[in-house]
């Protein structure tokens, strides 16, 4: 076998249709464009969303709401999760890096500690943000909160 003798399998390739090359080709005349109308002319381009004159969907459906450009998305970690994590690893200080290493948090999203659950272990917690209830609960046990 030689590289110059390789060919695709029979029936695997098709020659493209050469439109508008005279009546002998079977694709002459109107060249598959039909008779007259905008679609038969050169330069025709259908407008995006055009529905034949009917009111298009993007104009029929009402607009509502807005996108706050200052909104920041946080990865939520509850106190109950921190409690279980600290007890399992015997930790006194919990950082974002610890949470990421344990698979609790995501490295691409900032971490916010929320106040759901109870905390009984004294912890020094580092995170990007804290809810008021979480911060109060951590300080009530004697721990510290540090915002990164």
Key traits:
alpha/beta
Set out the fold topology.
Layout lengths: L56 H4 L14 E4 H11 L3 E2 L1 H6 L9 E4 L9 E4 L1 E2 L1 H9 L3 E4 L1
Parallel strand pairs: 1-3, 2-4, 3-5, 4-6
State the distance separating the first and last CA atoms: 66 Å
Low-confidence stretches: none
Q: How many alpha or pi helices?
A: 4
- Let me know the number of strands: 6
Going by helix content, strand content and strand pairing, the class is alpha/beta
Query: Into which percent range does the helicity of residues fall?
Result: 10-25%
Précis, in short:
The protein has four helices and six strands. It has helices at 57-60, 79-89, 96-101, 132-140; strands at 75-78, 93-94, 111-114, 124-127, 129-130, 144-147. The model has no long low-confidence stretch (mean pLDDT 92).
Plain-language structure description:
With 148 residues, this protein is an alpha/beta fold. It is 20% helix and 14% strand. It contains 4 helices and 6 strands; from the N terminus they run αβαβαβββαβ. The protein has helices spanning 57-60, 79-89, 96-101, 132-140; strands at 75-78, 93-94, 111-114, 124-127, 129-130, 144-147. Strands 1-3-5 form a 3-stranded parallel sheet. The protein has a 3-stranded parallel sheet with strand order 2-4-6. It is elongated and about 90 Å long. The two termini are 66 Å apart. The mean pLDDT is 92.
